[in-house]
Design brief:
Elements: H1 2-20, H2 31-66, H3 73-103, H4 113-122
């Protein structure tokens, strides 16, 4: 079964190469390969940055709601539990962001958990400032 799939995919690939008139295969040393690699890396960086920012902004809104005078005790407790879940998600997104940011060329600034918490509590949030 695997050999049949391989042969079918090989034929489909050959048909596509003919339709696209591919004359030369890219290798890692090609300028085009490297350019596309940078584009893909930048797209991954932007995606993870957008995700992290969205989580932090959501957390800021939750904190603002919790601190409103009209928010009752039960709702405050519910929001506090939601914020605990947010913090786990933000830590995970922060780890992903830092790994991608450090692998960029040139490397982008990595963030520490303490900085992110400061952004949330001060609502002084601008990750895109240096990008």
């Amino acid at each position: 079964h695997a050999l049949e799939d391989y042969n079918r995919h090989l034929k489909l690939t050959q048909v596509l190469k003919c339709k696209l008139e591919v004359k030369k295969h890219w290798v890692a040393e090609d300028v085009q390969w490297q350019k596309v690699g940078r584009l893909v890396a930048n797209q991954k960086y932007q995606h993870v940055l957008d995700h992290l920012e969205g989580l932090i902004v959501a957390c800021i809104f939750e904190l603002a709601k919790m601190n409103q005078a009209s928010t009752g005790y039960k709702l405050q407790k519910h929001i506090a539990k939601a914020l605990q879940a947010h913090s786990i998600t933000i830590r995970s997104a922060l780890t992903m962001y830092n790994s991608i940011a450090s692998s960029m060329h040139p490397a982008h600034k990595t963030l520490k958990w303490e900085e992110v918490v400061k952004y949330v509590f001060l609502a002084d949030f601008d990750l895109l400032h240096d990008t």
